[in-house]
Amino acid sequence: MMIEALIGVTLLSAFAVMLAPDKVAGKLAAGLSLLPVAGSVWMYAQFDGSGNALFEGGSLAFETMARWITVGPYTLNWHVGIDGISMPLVVLSTILTTLAIMSAWTPIDKRESQFYALMLLMEASLLGVFTALDFFVWFVFWEFVLVPMYFLIGIWGGPRRKYAAIKFFVYTNVASLVMFIGFMALVFGLSVNTMDMPAIAQAIAAGSFDTTYGLGETGLKTVAFFAMFFGFAVKVPTVPLHTWLPDAHVQAPTPASVMLAGVLLKMGTYALLRFNFTMLPGVASDYAVFIAALAVVSVIYGAMLALAQQDLKRIVAYSSVSSMGYVILGLVAYNVYGLGGATFQMVAHGLISGLMFMCVGVIYNTAHTRMVGDLSGIADKMPVTAAVFVAAAFGYMGLPLMAGFAGELFIFLGGFTAEFAYAQLFTALAMFGIVIVAGYLLFAMQRVLFGPFDADTDYDIVPAAVHDTVPIVTLVVLVVVLGTVPDVFYDMIQDAVTPMVDAMASAVVPLFGGELL
Amino acid sequence: MTELPPLTPQFVLAGAALLVLGVDTLTPDSRSNTLLAGISAAGTLLTAGVAAWFLSAGTGDFQFVQFDGALVVDALSLFFAFVVGTVATLVVVASHDYLEDQEHVAEFYSLILLAATGMTLMASANSLVTVFISLELASIPSYVLVSYLKTDRGSVEAGLKYFLVGALSSAIMVYGISLVYASTGVMGLQPIAESFGNGVEFTGVLGLGVVMLVGGFAFKTASVPFHFWAPEAYEGAPAPISAFISSASKAAGFAVLFRVFTTAFPLEVITGTVVDWSLLFAVLAVVTMTLGNFAAATQDNVKRMLAYSSIGHAGYVLIGLAAVQSGAGAENSFVLGASMMHLLVYGFMNTGAFLFVALAEYWGVGRTFEDYNGLAERAPVACVAMTVFMFSLAGLPVGGGFLSKYVLFAGAVQSGFAWLAAVAAINSALSLFYYSRVVKAIWIEEPNGDLSLEGQPTGLYVAVLAAAVGTVALLVAFDPVAQTANHAAGVLFG
User: Fold this and answer.
1) For residues B190, B191, B193 and B198, what is the CA-based torsion angle, rounded to 10 degrees?
2) Using beta carbons and an 8 Å cutoff, which residues of A are at the interface with B?
């Protein structure tokens, strides 16, 4: 019942904040959001799951299962539980929400109670996404996330917020619909009478397929894989499906950007891991070269796009495209380091990109511009923010002792030892992306933070308030902790991905004798 | 212990209609809007309650044949009696405020009740004669109700257009019935199916008759090719009546459509010899949903947008019939049941949306999207309800519309109609665009000038909020609806 309590408390907090007067809404929301933080940390301490949620022999922590709906022969269950993959993401969601709420105190100055209520509503649905284990329950939460995000962008966003909100909305909704049809075709090709994800994964592994739509097992799996891959790749996003992201990020208010980059993008990679790579590892391995190529293009092209930007927020937005490419590379490598590194990188990137957006937000709060060309030598006026910004940038570049280093190292280790064709070449190319990251981040830092002070703005640049520095300093501490002791999450992650690798070893039937090209 | 007659829902509605007229005859001089609304609401609520009670008590497990096979009471008819009863209750409660300054309120309420009687009879009709009679009983009061605001040019024009298209489609349908009778010699739905046992004769005449029957049903359900009346009628009619016709009348039209085609013209017999109506409905579904959604996306008027979206939803529901396959009982009741679930949820969310428009009309807010700008600042509670309706109609999980829509798509995929589900998915994504325009207007846009909302429309508020609560509750407590609809659809496939 712990998961229900966690989601329930978050939902109730959202309603309480919605009814609160605007003046106290921010403080109240931050205070109430500590409840889910405490809950998730307590759950982390009590975590007793082992193995992978979707595999036989996986034991879930805090699992509950109850019948929800019966439609004809199919039973939909309320089935939630946490394994080593979802636990870190649950902790990430709660902590990042609290910090994002604090970072909103300064910039959000209208309709506050609605804003904070929507943030908490989004947190509740994100927790649902990461814990649900029945497809329909998961899909309810997955789609519900769009609703608060639409309002957050649409009401509190920048000048083109209405366009960005509807673009985000329709783009991701189309993706969900394609994914849904693909997944349904897969389920109806199986002889299961439930939408339970573990049951489906195990039925697929057992290979109990009927001919559906004139497609045999391989055909159906391939079609379903790509329908789902398309659906999730939009959310990640992967080049060339990333075009909604810069609009949404740049127009969204900074706290919403933090959530978008920090947690919402992880929904895509989490779903890829849970559905495509856990349920259909054979297809993933057959098309590994294609997926790896997409990942590398995302890394390099995303970084190049970031290099070309003048707006700090756009730089960070495009760099997310680049970083999520690493995650996909780790997934396609499909060994313990690759999968574990990808999951770890989801958390690491969630913290670091959230931190970067907050830093940009803090600078924007006082300077009212985010253009690299308008700012110079901010470090003189805002020493703490500048220091944090530098730390965040180095975290992004993968400096040792930072979380980004651990994640990327695992991914590259996985990539070099992966077994698909040209894995080493792809990994080497992806590593080159780090050079570009260093390029644009160092360039931006050097222009904005250092040199003689000069700001092309009508506003006085003043040091950030205490409640603005607390979230960013907290995040830096977390990033360093995670980089120094990656075991806090990596152990349970590794425990959850090892069964996947073991299952893969027996499941793979190499296409064209193992050589695709 | 005496047992209630199986047709109790219909009797209650007809009785309430007569009671309303009787009260008005006895006290012609007093304006008893509240009393009459109370009687009507009690009658419709009782209807829905009795239908739900019968369903849960298992009355629908058997087919109660009434009047020598002319009517039948089973899970399907009770399911739709419940839908019509709930929608009519919401509409009557909302009408109480809407009619504050109008004359002839007794006629208004009794016509709603009579139309509702016709709709529940449509769901029970088991012979082509009763199909036609109940259809007319539902239609004729509706024509009058649409043109109820008789000094309003839009309302009168809407009524005339509705009547002309309705008369034309009725004529086509009667001709279709006569052709079916000519080739089979019987009127009852089961006897028609049984007459095919000795081989189908006069296939050309019969096929033409079947296709012409579709005309009558397409009119009632606002599907292509008899959808022309819908935008005008919904726009011109008093908003509660738009809600009533677009939700209850549509549901009843689908009820009779489902029964006639699955009972009288089983696909197994008809496909090879006469006409493949599954393909016919697949084409109609695609055209209806695409036309409805694309037209809705280009509207500036909220009521008109809702009218076209209502056509689009008729297209989704048609999937249930299009995906029926011969000899596939379980798959058929899955997908047809999904259509019925969608009609029930639609009864809440679409009625609610039109009643919100009624609320806006009551306040004197204009009719375009721009007129709704910033409404949330003045009426946040009603706007939360409207947001629930819009997102639920678009298929986002704030209401039961999410589940019914995705179960329907899943049903289509399961029956081998993934292409139909794909077309519906494209339409659904497009619908998100225009539904969110309303949400954008009320929440995101700044209000134009000073907007003062006057009056205390308690009834309207109660109805809108009840519809919203119902829509949200159906997301969580969807199980009874799903099971009942599946069971009711199963009755049709034996």
Assistant:
1) 150
2) 67-73, 136, 139-141, 143-144, 146-147, 150-151, 154-155, 161-162, 165-166, 169-170, 173-174, 177-178, 180-181, 184-185, 188, 212-213
